[in-house]
Predict the 3D structure of the following.
Amino acid sequence: MNTKNFMDKNYLHIIRSGINSTFQDSGRKNLNHIGIPISGAMDNRNFLLANKIAGNEINMQVIEFAYQGPLLKYFGEKISAVITGDVNFKIKKNQNHIKGECYNCFTLESGDELDILSTNKSVYGYLAISGEFDLEYQWRSCSTNTKAIIGANKGKRLKTNQKINISRINKDLSNLKLNYINTKIEQIRVIKGTNFDYFSDQGKKNFFEKSFKVSKLSDRMGMRLEGLTIENIKDPNITSEGLMKGVVQVPPDGNPIIMLSDHGTIGGYPKIGVIISADYDKLVQIPSGSKIKFSNIELKDAETLFKLYEMETQNLISQIK
């Protein structure tokens, strides 16, 4: 088969790009030492479910969007697609508008439009096709980090009037689905950070007992919070150290910042805590303006909760049929 002709025949045309629409997979591993974060899908569970329902390998590329997704027009052979998350969308076939169902595969035919209108009191959603986009990989991942300008699409967000070529379509159209409802979270569980003792007793009390508001300045790099000041009694700046996803740093203004998937790999603000891995997928879905609270748990409990969360995710994957 002539791959170029196939790609010219099967593609998505972007009529509206949406808010922060990018290509993502599970990210790039073991590169923190050269300043490259993992990146990858913000909500890993919804990323995995999208690929499984689409009938793909579990780490196939998807389009991740925030708040409002893209409006796309499809050209080519019949193809299956799926959207995961808490998302409002519709499919336009000729003059018919069909309300979409998340976690339920649907078919796109040449000339159909897919309008991803909005997420529902959440942030991220995922579009997977039953096949493969024609993307460039960097360090064995297509994940786009717009801050570092690396990954697919030359490290940039999707743009209006852009063409997304499809290099392969699965021969068997997928009709898989899953009965799944995303649950919300307000109480975020945290283990103490390496600089926990840098903060006053009142600062620690504020962190664990008071609510914080998610700032509009939050993005894939970090979630900024607003609330009562977390007072530092030792030093508001430290020698830069390695960072990981979920670390909660406190800059001199006393307002916490949670490191997210595109975080910098080093930082010089004291770390009061780390979000447990089991809560991360739900944390990133909390929209700006929402209130959240933190609760302290021990490391051994965080490990147990992570294992349970992984088991629950695998159980959901096994239910897809």
User: Anything to note?
Assistant: The radius of gyration is 21 Å. Residues 299-319 form the longest helix (21 residues). Residues 3-169 form one domain. Helices lie at 3-9, 44-54, 201-209, 277-283, 299-319.
